[in-house]
Structure prediction request, 437 residues.
Amino acid sequence: MILYRAAMAALVPFLTVLTLVQRLGGRVASGALAQRFGRVARPQATRIDGADPGRPAVWLHGASNGELASALRLVRRISAERPGLTVLVTANTGTGVDLARSWGVPGVHAALAPFDTRAATARLLRRWQPALLIVIENELWPARLAAVQSAAVPVALVGARMSSRSARRWARLAPGLMRTTLGRLTLVSAQDDASAERLVALGLAEDRLGPVVMLKSAGPSDATMPPAERGHDLPRDRVLLAASTHPGEEALILHAFAAARAQFDLLILAPRHARRGTEVAGVIAAAGLAFARRSEGAAPPPTVDVPVFLADTMGEMALWYRMAGVTIIGGSFVPLGGHTPYEPCGAGSAIVHGPHMENFAAPAAALARAGAAIAVGRTGLVAALAGLDAARQAELATAARLALPPDDGIEGIVTRILALLPATPPNGQKNGTSDNA
Prediction:
């Protein structure tokens, strides 16, 4: 731990410069550096957006869009059970902060996460005085958790994922640091049994384990685009979605779509990071295909003569899932481990993915056993799309729903989390300080 703290102290000047110059969510974020040092003001004096400053706060942290998107229903459930609750959501990226701000959940405030130093974390803790820290998936920052433990704040790790590769690395390179870090967790809900077993093997006490819950298993919301905002209507089986794509995937998918025009009239191309919109627009233009951009106000499809719709905005993925008869899962044709199959499955969209689904190995295996998804290599995408007529799409979508039923286990983890919160706010509780530390 001492070596880790020394390393982080050496990195802070570099991270400071990086925060000052990087473009966060397509713009330079106001107050980004102050937030990185834990200077995030908590609303005081009056109710803000339905939140009651007299009640305890919850601090929820997720790395970026993917983790926070999966945490939305957890936030909604907790907020529904505790009306007036104030929730601080932090992320490592500006796009993650923007996503949390777009939720419209009363009492939710969003900011960049503090650097992983005890001083930055302690500063945020003094200002917000959270009654609980909820961490999503893999965000186990040692110095942050040490500071939270020193402040006697319980920590719930939800959707915890520990791959066999990561477990081997921790066991080989820093077993003591991992054991100490896991010892600071009050409650751990893994996203699968294998992750739970690996966490216990790395030093997590078994009595800290809660129910196994895959947060992303509920699928997208029942979002629909208002008729006034829709472009030209197309049958769902004529719409292809490429969801959460990464560099190296867009050109491949555009080529396959162009070859499958007999089957699809529209490709909705949704890059994982909206800030890549201009970059992806260049890739589409290089492919010789007409396109429109959501960030410029277009609705899909704008006309029958525009075959590609660039969905370079945030918070609208549920719309695209429900419009598309087929979804290509991004991050699976490059070695990034793939993104969630649960959301297209829940929306009734047939699933196509590449060879890299390590992040969702168990659900991908379940889909494979049921013949409920098409798994192909980079060279097989053209042929896969050509065979996806309306009947085949419906067959795959039905099989996927049976293979990946929604996981209702979230109620169990909500109950455990609520038990960690004080039943009522202490009389005279102060909600933040004006410290200048």
Observations:
- The chain is about 40% helix and 15% strand.
